[in-house]
Each structure stands twice: as structure tokens, then as C-alpha cells.
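user: can you give me the structure for this one chain? C-alpha cells are fine.
assistant: on it. calling the predictor now.
[tool input]
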Amino acid sequence: QVQLVESGGGLVQARGSLRLSCAASERTFSVYAMGWFRQAPGKEREFVAGISSNGGFTSYGDSSQGRFTISRDNAKNTVNLQLNNLKPEDTAVYYCAATRIGSPTSVLRRYDYWGQGTQVTVSS
């Protein structure tokens, strides 16, 4: 089983930035595509960004609006999510996830492993 641990969340003012990180325990991390999701209170879990196993392809959910960037460092078993120009509606718990299909997908059920999440709170 792959363990994923998110970090980097916190409290930030509107228009501020945060950089989230997800560290994987798996030595063969590079075979997995990775995704970031978020879930606000009372709402469904939402796809934010995904990146292919080799980092060559990325995709973003509608919530990104050009403000977010996903990246990975396979040598360090890490995937990152840069959040810029944050808005109060970005407030949520952010989760990283891994899928064995190798390509990013917005479909939750295709992900095999999930982290515990990191809280992002954006104040107005």
C-alpha cells in the first residue's frame, strides 16, 4: 500500500499563494499518475489538477482558472501544487491521490491511494 502525506496548507489572505506538497512512500512512485482534489464543507470532492507518471501531461479542473500549477519530482517521490491568487472559495481540504493507470483523470474512483489531506483557508 502506498502512503501519501500532504503538507503546506495553512491560512492565507485573498490573492495570496501557497505551495502544497505530497510525499509518497512508494519507491516506484514514478509509475503512478497523481492528482489533487479538494473538498469544502458540505460539498463533493472536486478534481483540481492531475499529472502523468512522467510529468509530461497535466490537466486542471474548472476551479483552477489558470491560477494553479501541478508538478512532480520523481527522484524525491513528491508532487506539488502551486496555488496562486487564492480566493475565499478555494477554502477546502486538499488531498493528493495516486492512480495506477499512469495518466491523470478527474474520476475519483480511478485513484487507488489517498492522503489524509491538508487544510487551506483563504480569508477575505
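assistant: here you go. The chain is about 0% helix and 50% strand. The longest strand covers residues 92-99.
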